Amino acid sequence: MREKLTSKLKENDLPFTIIADEVTDHHANQEVLSVCLRFVDLTSPQDPHIKECLINLINVERANASTIATKILESISHPSISLNPRNIRGQAYDGASVMSSEKAGVQAKIKEISPLALYTHCYAHTLNLSIAASCKVQEVRNLIDTINESYLFLNHSPKRQRFFERALNEYLPACRHSKLPGLCKTRWVERHTCYEVFLEMYECFVTFLDAIISPGEYQNLLLDDDENWNWDRETKIKAQGLKSSLSSFQCVAVFIITKNILDEVKPLASKFQKQDCDIGDAYKLVDSSIENIRSIREKIDETFSSWYNSEIIPLADNIGVSECVPRKTSLQMNRSNVPSNTPMEHYKRAIAIPLLDSLLGQMKERFSEDQRHAQGLLRLLPSVIISENEPVDRMLESLQFYEGDLPFPRSLGNELRRWNALWHKKGTENVSGSGLVPSNLLLTLGACDRDSFPNIHRLLIIACTLPISSAEAERSFSLVRRLKTYLRSTMAEERLSDLSIIAMHYGERIPIDEVCHTFVQAHPRKLFQVSLFDNY
Q: CA-CA distance, 347 to 259, in Å (whole number)?
């Protein structure tokens, strides 16, 4: 399977990227390192696609930079793969110092062998850090705790869950969900889903809590034999606390504000999980999200007025909550004490503006221009060529970093001139909107003739190879949890790695004859050797 996955990569001597991450195997109490590759599949030159594949799962005795780097290099040197480590052009890890340190981290160890292997801090992790840092507003933190406690209140009791389902069938029969999703600690795209589902169930969940506190008022929720559910004292106390929190106008306002603001980064959280996302698409998405957040901040009066009147007030009315502001004192340590004349002005100044400013500042800092590498490769995009009309000499200077990768480096300048002329001509022909100009790196690679532009073709392959996130390695961890259960806790490293690769790439089909032939070569026996009587 490894050989089939990387056969085209090895045959064409293409550049590739390393994606790696670690996880703790709780059944065996071991650190497991997942190693994946990202490269461009050129099986169809006019329709290339980006491929990310798992190649190894390794037990790591010591989680230091030298050990991890050695294991990664051993993985790509596996007999069934045998890739040249000098073709590594990118690395995607998390932001831990053991991986990201420029002097003693894994990225530094890999760069000693392949100096062109640029390190990328996983964009999905970077986005998570940006959102987590911006949600330190006290009211937002309280909201997150309340939502999480609501999830645990149902998840820890099958009886409460059954009663909640009965309430959903009675008061919200059109709801497609039967459970409250939890707030995932690592993937914020799951948190967006949680906010949307919680908003849909908000009114019904408050009714459910009230039915636990005052069961006599909800005869339609009794058991089939008309008996009460007989809630214990602890359940009623927790239900009372959750209802008190969720039935406050402040909680309703903070919930709607937080959900609407974080909706602006939901496309990023989803797109960064995709294999076909390249650096050009990622940079555009980040810039677009930052611009959208800045636009909301500049028009905060108009935008917040719309949120307040069309979402906050109706939800508060549905659960029977009147418009109000928290009590103010001369000295408050854990609540905002901003000057305001109306409730709408209070929540705008105390919640919306600080959250927007914090999120905008975090994203500008963590996704700054300094953190974006290979900017010169993006100048090969036809849309950039047509819009910016950059001089060829400046483009040539920005691409000197990859001079050693070019098949004909001395002719790069002439190629760039012809490349610019080609797309300027097609840009004028595209006035009618016929879609002749590719919009991203992968489409540009498919439109690039390898014979006419060999150097640019190679540069576009490198650009498509550069990673955005380490999501593929994290997907392998989910697979490991399904394979290595407590009944298989003694599974050896080689078996776990092989089964994971087969399961991860179940769509790949290998002919039985090839499997038998490989097995015979790996395990020679007299039974499989040629006999003198084979011709008779």
A: 14
